[in-house]
Specification:
The protein is an alpha+beta fold and about 300 residues long. It is about 20% helix and about 35% strand. The relative contact order is 0.18.
Length: about 300
């Protein structure tokens, strides 16, 4: 007598394989969509971070600048000006060399620098003339170096202490391209300026970035190689509503400034950045643009009153 063994028929096997393929395909589609979703969220976050970086970097420099002949370029996608990079006080001065106090990293300090000045930057000294006029007198820096406090700012100056000398702290010596007048004495505030240009530029990869150039301190504008700061952003356009980076300039009454208006009228700068990223489209397979835009208004702290 022939016994029937339990098993799976060919038809049942084909049906199971087909069903498994359908389920596997559905799972794969779901996973792919999830990956595209999270990639899109990541790209949007990246674009937002780029926009935030652009506005934060530029706004701090613009807010702190002084308007007295410091704004050298006001364009729709570029701005060039003398930015504050540090401050200190004069300890002692002989001819073209000025001694400065030490920098205390963990406490209040008379010397503070975002970056140390060097050849080509500008030192401005606060002076008050006999008739009561106040101004910042400018001198081009020929050299900047660290020196012992005994040489640059001894305790007898009143701007350092013996404890600083015992701790082997160092001060600074600034060498100027031209000697100081007699009106620069110990205790005079000094600020350090560096000429910089921020602009939207197209890199070799075809994308647009926020770039920084260091420029010569005096004379006609001559800038060094561009350094990318953040991006990519939207492409440049003369249309302020779509361009990747735009600057708008206003006076104290909120009126837009034209190219021929005096830089001393500048009271506010509006910066708009439009970041973008490209990712494969979830449906069409084409590239989808992920964009984020932000505008910040920066009031000039040291503007002319």
């Amino acid at each position: 007598m022939q016994r029937h063994r339990p098993g799976v028929s060919l038809v049942e096997l084909v049906a199971v394989v087909a069903l498994a393929g359908v389920v596997g395909g559905a799972v794969a589609v779901t996973i792919n969509r999830q990956q595209l979703f999270y990639r899109g969220v990541s790209d949007l976050h990246y674009a937002r971070e780029g926009v935030r970086a652009a506005t934060e970097v530029m706004s701090s420099d613009i807010r702190a600048m002084s308007l007295h002949d410091t704004v050298r370029l006001r364009a729709d996608s570029a701005m060039e000006f003398l930015a504050d990079i540090g401050s200190s006080v004069v300890c002692q001065g002989v001819g073209g060399q000025i001694g400065l106090p030490a920098r205390h990293p963990e406490s209040n300090s008379l010397s503070a620098f975002l970056v140390e000045p060097d050849t080509g930057d500008i030192a401005t000294f606060y002076v008050r003339s006999a008739d009561g006029r106040e101004e910042w007198e400018r001198h081009r820096i020929a050299g900047f170096s660290s020196r012992s406090l005994a040489t640059s700012c001894p305790p007898t100056s009143g701007f350092s202490a013996q404890a600083d000398l015992d701790a082997a702290m160092t001060g600074f010596v600034v060498t100027l391209a031209d000697p100081l007048p007699g009106g620069i004495r110990a205790g005079v505030p000094v600020r350090f300026l560096r000429r910089a240009r921020y602009s939207l530029y197209r890199a070799s990869d075809g994308h647009w970035y926020l770039g920084y150039r260091r420029c010569n301190a005096v004379g006609a504008s001559t800038c060094g190689p561009v350094q990318p700061l953040s991006g990519p952003y939207g492409a440049y356009s003369a249309d302020a509503q779509v361009t990747g980076l735009s600057f708008e300039y206003f006076d104290a009454q909120g009126h837009p400034l034209g190219p021929s208006d005096s830089p001393l009228m500048l009271a506010r700068v509006d910066i708009t950045a439009r970041g973008e990223r490209w990712q494969p489209g979830a449906k069409s397979g084409q590239a989808d643009r992920v964009a984020e835009a932000a505008t910040i208004s920066v009031a000039i702290r040291n503007r002319a009153r």
